[in-house]
Structures are given as C-alpha cells and as structure tokens.
Amino acid sequence: MPLSLLIQKLSEGLLVSIAIFTLTLIFSLPLGLLVAFGRMAKNPILRNIVKFYISIMRGTPLMLQLMVVYFGPYYIFGIRLSHGYRFIAAIIGFVLNYAAYFAEIYRGGIESMPLGQYEAAKLLGYSKTQTFFRIILPQVIKRILPAVTNEVITLVKDTSLAFVISVMEMFALAKAIAAAQTNMMPFIVAGVFYYIFNYVVAFASEALEKRFSYYQ
Amino acid sequence: MKILEIKHLSKSFDGLTVLKDISLSVEEGQVIGIIGPSGSGKSTLLRCATMLETMDSGELIYLGEHAVTTGDNGQAVYAPPAKLQEIQRYFGLVFQNFNLFPHFSVIKNITDALITVQKKDKGEALAIGRELLEKMGLADKENAYPYQLSGGQQQRVSIARALALNPKILFFDEPTSALDPELTGEILKVIRQLAAERMTMVIVTHEMSFARDVADHIIFMNDGVIVEEGPPEIVINNPQNERTRAFLKRFEN
Ligand SMILES: Nc1ncnc2c1ncn2[C@@H]1O[C@H](COP(=O)(O)OP(=O)(O)OP(=O)(O)O)[C@@H](O)[C@H]1O
Ligand SMILES: [Mg+2]
C-alpha cells in the first residue's frame, strides 16, 4: 500500500480517535465535578457509594471496563444492541473511567484550598454557590491544571483501547492493515499521529496555564 | 445606640470550654480593645460574634435584632438563614492573614461583593472602591494583584474590602500580627483614622500602646473569661486584677 493511501486510511481512524477523545472530555470533565461533590458529600451513604465507584474505576483495567459496558447488556440482560452501540459503549466506558480520575483530582484541589477563602467570602455575604463558582473553582482550576493535563495526555493514548470492542479507531485500523500487509509501516505512522496529537494537547495546555499565570 | 450585644456566650470545642459566660456590649462609635494571653479565647470570641463559629449558648444581638437567642433548654438558637443573612451585613471582619482573593485584582477584591452580593451597578461599585483605595493610600495599586503587594498593603486592601460593604461594626483579629514590625505602623495609622471618624470597632491586639491610644474600653481575657475591663487608663495603666498585671508585665520594656 502506498504511503499516501496508508496515511489517508489512518487519518480516517484518527478522526474516530479524536471523536472518542473529545466526547470523553466533554462529558467526563463536568461529570467528574459531580462525582467529586458526591465523594465529599456529608451523607455517608452517597459518599461511600461514590468512593466504591471510584475505587472500581481506578482498580480495574480500562480495557475490562470497556468490555463490560459493551457486552454487559447482552450477557446480563440478554439485550441485543445494534452495531452502532460499539462507539457509544466506548464513550460510556471512557467517560465513567475518566470522570473517576478527574473527580479525585478535583477533590484534591478543592480540599487544598485554605479555609480562610471560604470564611472571607462568607463575611462578605457571598452565598455558597457564589463562593464556589467565583472564589474557589477558579483557583482550583489553576492548581489542578498540571494534573488534568497528565490525564488528558494519557487519554490520547488510551483511546487506542477502544479496539477491544472493535471500534475502528486509528490503532484498530493500523493493526488490521499491518496484519494484512505483514508490514510495520502502519504502526510507525500511527505512532507519529499519536505523537502529533499529544503535541497539540501539550501546546493547548501550556497556553491555558499561561492564561492562569497572571497571579500566584 | 447599641450596635452589638453579646449575653452569656459560652463555647466549647469537644469538651474543652473555651469561652465561659462572656457578656459585652458595643455602643455606636465605640472602639473596644481585647487583650489577653495566647489561647485565652479572643479569636474564638470574634469568630462567634461574626458567626464563623456557632456558639453553644448565649445571645447575639446586632442593632436590637437577634441573631442568636437562648432556647428553653439553654442552648443557642440561631435565627432563620434569611434573617442571619440580613444581620451579616451589619458587620465586617479583618483577618490576621488578610484572606484576599488572589485571583482578583485589588479593585476587584473590593468591588466584587458590591456587584455580585449587593447588586450595585459596576460604575457605583468602582467609585466606592476607588474612594477607599485613595483613603488607604493605594490609589496606584488598583490593578495590581495581591501577590504583588507588601503585607501592609494587602492588609489595607482587606480593610478597604470590608469597609466597602459599609458595615456598622468592624472586627479586627490581630491585624498586624502577620506583618513585619516596620509595616505595623501603616495599619495602626489606618485604624486610628477610622477611630477618628467614629467607626465602631472591636480590635483584638497585642499592641498595648496602640490599644491604650485607640480604644475607649479595654477587655482583658484569660482562660475564656473576661477578667477585667474598663477604660484603658485603668486596665492598661493601673490594672486592678493580679492576672492583668502579670500579663501586662510582659509588655514592659
Ligand atoms: N476549631 C477549634 N477546635 C478545637 N479547639 C480550638 C479551635 N479553635 C480554637 N480552639 C482552642 O480554643 C482556645 C482558644 O483559642 P483562640 O484561638 O480563641 O485563642 P486566642 O486568644 O485567639 O489566642 P492567640 O492570641 O494565640 O490568637 C485554645 O485553647 C485553642 O486551642
Ligand atoms: Mg487569636
């Protein structure tokens, strides 16, 4: 297969990888905040359920989680789902997993905020919601940006795990083409694409960190 | 007019009694100085008065309105949240370590609550903020961020932030303790100026000569009780109580 055709084929896979990446972030970043609130809730039942969920997400392989989400509805409930469910299952699996990791990062950031910030806000009459969104969260974002960047870079590489439920993202395609052609080239091109992908991510996060560097 | 009345306030932290039956009242324009050794409960008293800490029993009254009353079982009963929110507007607190919002510029630290909490329009809030900065000698720092200021300047911003909301009474908890000695003067000067303008204030301080100059009434606390109180000429210059004398001895030199 000529290089140009290979690049074209893998680019199609890259688009799927980017779709998984983007949708995962869109859903898991806010969901992680909800999970963090649950993890810090006063209600012990809610708190322990969320704690258990986080420990499962962090304590088992993402690959296994993807299989459970994909095959679970059939094996457990006997529900037959269409082919299109593959992609949806991948998104559900990634979102559930990454929300747990983001939640722990958020929690660490929120708990690292000095009590004095809450007290000053209370004295000035800010409501709890205003205090969180105007005073606490902006400072938390600055503190956790490096940790979130690490997770996002891991996510770029983790999108390749969607191959286990046969989502035709870039890695699954590279693997199929390499097997058919008995040739290393698809893996090398895919590797270069992942590298460039992460380069862009790192660049974006650096720009974001700069935007938050106006104060210390 | 009485701005603040505290009656029979008691407070303990898991079994340890920190404040025992404290009563005090503050008249409009009065400046009260609170002195006493470390751990005597001065901060806890201010934190109960500003509702950062809940009291176990006693009454808390601002301008005749009850924030806390005593229930039938002797326990403190707090007014409903809406009422507390209203009463919250009567007082401000200046912290030892400023607690400025580091992500807000100096002017935003002062005006943000005016805009988001009190719903004043931006122009009006800005005018209030600028006037206060002028008064604090910080007109040129409007757009600086807290980390770019000295401790003394940060504390002046935090005083301006508290004043912006136009409180009836302002509490200070050791406003100079976090500052280098050469910076305490600028804060004391600001507080003196406020006293001259008849601002009602309650000031916890370890600066005895400042307390003597600025306060009309001194309260000496020890082990969670008010041991002695009265005009500064008596409590500081000529204390009647043995404990007060022992405490003040440490400041002689
Ligand atoms: N949140 C808390 N939990 C438990 N104990 C506390 C708490 N806050 C204060 N205390 C205790 O209450 C007592 C009074 O403390 P407080 O901070 O009011 O003293 P202070 O007079 O302000 O002392 P300092 O001059 O050192 O500031 C101390 O024994 C302190 O250990
Ligand atoms: Mg104290």
Largest interface: A-B, 20 and 26 residues
Instruction: Tell me the Rg of chain A in angstroms.
Output: 21 Å
Residue stretches of chain A low in confidence (pLDDT < 50, at least 5 long) are none
CATH superfamily of chain A: MetI-like
Structural class of chain B: alpha/beta
Account of the protein in words:
The complex is a heterodimer of chains A (216) and B (253). With 216 residues, chain A is mainly α. Chain A has one domain: Orthogonal Bundle (MetI-like fold), CATH 1.10.3720.10. Helix content of chain A is 81%, strand content 0%. Chain A is built from eight helices and no strands. The termini of chain A are far apart. The model of chain A has no long low-confidence stretch (mean pLDDT 94). With 253 residues, chain B is of the alpha/beta class. Chain B has a domain of 65 residues. Chain B has nine helices and eleven strands. In chain B, strand 1 and strand 2 form a beta hairpin. Classes of the chains: A mainly alpha (216), B alpha/beta (253). At the A-B interface, helix 5 and helix 6 of A face strand 7 and helix 3 of B. The complex binds adenosine-5'-triphosphate and magnesium ion. Adenosine-5'-triphosphate binds next to helix 1 of chain B.
Name a few traits of the molecule.
heterodimer, A: 216 residues, mainly alpha, MetI-like fold, 81% helix, 0% strand, B: 253 residues, alpha/beta, 6-stranded mixed sheet, 5-stranded antiparallel sheet, 9 helices, 11 strands, 27% strand, binds adenosine-5'-triphosphate, binds magnesium ion
In short:
The complex is a heterodimer of chains A (216) and B (253). Chain A has 216 residues and is mainly alpha-helical. Helix content of chain A is 81%, strand content 0%.
Topology diagram in text:
The complex is a heterodimer of chains A (216) and B (253).
Chain A: H1 3-39, H2 44-59, H3 62-77, H4 85-111, H5 115-123, H6 128-158, H7 170-181, H8 185-211
Chain B: E1 2-13, E2 16-27, E3 31-35, H1 42-49, E4 57-62, E5 65-70, E6 76-78, H2 81-88, E7 91-94, H3 106-116, H4 122-135, H5 151-164, E8 169-173, H6 181-196, E9 201-204, H7 208-214, E10 217-222, E11 225-230, H8 232-235, H9 242-249
Parallel strand pairs in B: 3-9, 3-10, 7-8, 8-9
Antiparallel strand pairs in B: 1-2, 1-4, 4-5, 5-6, 10-11
